[in-house]
Amino acid sequence: MARTYDLVLFGATGFTGKLVAEYLAKHATGLAWAVAGRSEAKLREVLDGLHGGGKGVGLLVADASDAESLKGVVTAARVVATTVGPYAKVGHGLARAAAEHGTHYCDITGEVPFVRRSIDDNHARARETGARLVHCCGFDSIPSDLGVLLLADRARELGATLEATRLVVLKAKGGFSGGTAASMMNLMREAERDRGLRRLLRDPYSLTPDPASELQVDGPDPVRVRWDDDAKVWTGPFIMAAINTRVVRRSNALLGHRYGRAFGYEETMSFSRGPRGLATASAFVAGLGATLLVASKEPTRAVLERFLPKPGDGPSKAARDGGFFRVALYSRASSGARLEARVEGTSDPGYGETAKMLSESALALVEGAFASDEGGVLTPAVALGQGLITRLRAAGMTFELKAGR
Fold first, then answer.
1. Calpha distance 70→64 (Å, rounded)
2. Which of these, 111, 121, 124, lies nearest to 197 by C-alpha position?
3. What pLDDT does residue 1 have?
4. What are the two backbone dihedrals, phi and then psi, of residue 104, each rounded to the nearest 5 degrees?
5. DSSP H stretches of helix in 309-383
6. I want to staple 348 with a disulfide (CB 3.0 to 4.6 A). Which of 57, 118, 174, 216 is the partner?
7. Spatial contact of 349 and 373, defined as CB atoms under 8 Å apart
8. Strands lying side by side in the sheet with 324-333
């Protein structure tokens, strides 16, 4: 089927969508690409504000709730990238259409239930049509997924596999948008009334193809304050671990357990060392627990939502430019070797760096730079692998192995 566009960005009028459109306007040179969304007027405003005035960029009007308009998007494009969320509410139609019509797809979801349903609904059909559906192509979960891939490939060079592996967020500075808040509140709302969903969220292997075949090395995500001997800091729970760890475990399973059958994985965030770090980490854990308790019930959740940013709101350009993140990954290999990697970004992780990661994932799909010969609902590591690491390094991110210990 002839496709009009190499790439279509769906949701270009949203906060993150605009950032992705700006990135593509500067970097998608020589490609035929378009923006898509519900409002033609708002899409034209986006195009007018792009580098070069959006000259040559196409425009498609489509609604996430209109299956026929979504078919028009995916059949016009070789690749579709979407920032439209909450994905559990409005994302299923586009993913389904992409799988059905053999269109490669990527998004920035951090919603475990959405990815699980996409696997169940779309994986088999996408394998038939050759479509690569790559979820979680932002700060959720590329640093985790590709960072572990970097370690695993190094272990293979040593004739070993990975065993106990963890990611520690060393430092990060970033903002919070209304779209992210809406996705989180929708997830809490759905979990309150669905016991099966609560079980899914607690299951560390919820995204693996066959959880029963796993060795079940991992249990629940860490929720307590702990001392990390490698990072030399106190650590507490990392809220994004709930999606990142599941994505990494899916990568290992889809790769035939290339990371290892005894591979275990967890994520934490760091605080400073010493009594002050312990006190800060403890206060954070208490505050996080209280916030989740408030968000878990409708009456108090409604009060909390009044204080959260609204959809379309987000950090200023100055705030985004002043953001960054640095994470370390530590692993014990089956050979006894101690491995370490670092992943870093130089702008707000959830917006500047996420726009970069989604854009580069989409461009890699356009170029056909696949790490896998088969379609399906894949992860960044499985679909794009080391080639995406190379692209992101060229775009300014750091992926590096530290000297062995």
1. 7
2. 111
3. 57
4. -65, 150
5. 317-321, 352-367, 380-383
6. 174
7. no
8. 226-228, 233-237, 264-270, 162-173, 324-333, 338-345, 398-401
Q: Which has the closest alpha carbon to 323: 333, 332, 314?
A: 314
**Between the CA of residue 302 and those of 120, 266, 290, what are the distances in Å?**
32, 32, 15
> By the 8 A CB rule, do 146 and 399 touch?
yes
The string of pLDDT tens digits covering residues 340-369 is 999 999 999 999 999 999 999 999 999 999
pLDDT for residue 194? 86
Q: What is the pLDDT of residues 385-394, one digit of tens each?
A: 999 999 999 9
How many angstroms separate the CA atoms of 31 and 200, rounded? 40
The tokens describing 256, both together, are: 């035939």
Closest CA relative to residue 362, chosen from 17, 26, 28:
28
Report the C-alpha gap between 163 and 175 in whole angstroms.
34
Could you tell me the maximum CA-CA distance found in the chain, to the nearest angstrom?
Answer: 63
The C-alpha atoms of residue 170 and residue 238 are separated, in whole angstroms, by 11
pLDDT of residue 405: 56
Query: What's the pLDDT tens digit per position in 274-327?
Result: 999 999 999 999 999 998 898 888 889 888 888 887 777 788 999 999 999 999
- Sign, CA dihedral 311-118-139-375, equals negative
With 0.70 as the threshold, say if the pTM is over it: yes
Q: What are phi and psi of 246, to 5 degrees?
A: -70, -40
The total of other beta-carbon atoms located within 10 Å of residue 287's CB is: 10
**Across the beta sheet with 5-10, what order do the strands follow?**
58-61, 33-37, 5-10, 77-82, 104-107, 132-134, 376-378
Find out whether 10 and 21 touch, Cβ atoms under 8 Å. no
pLDDT of residue 178: 67
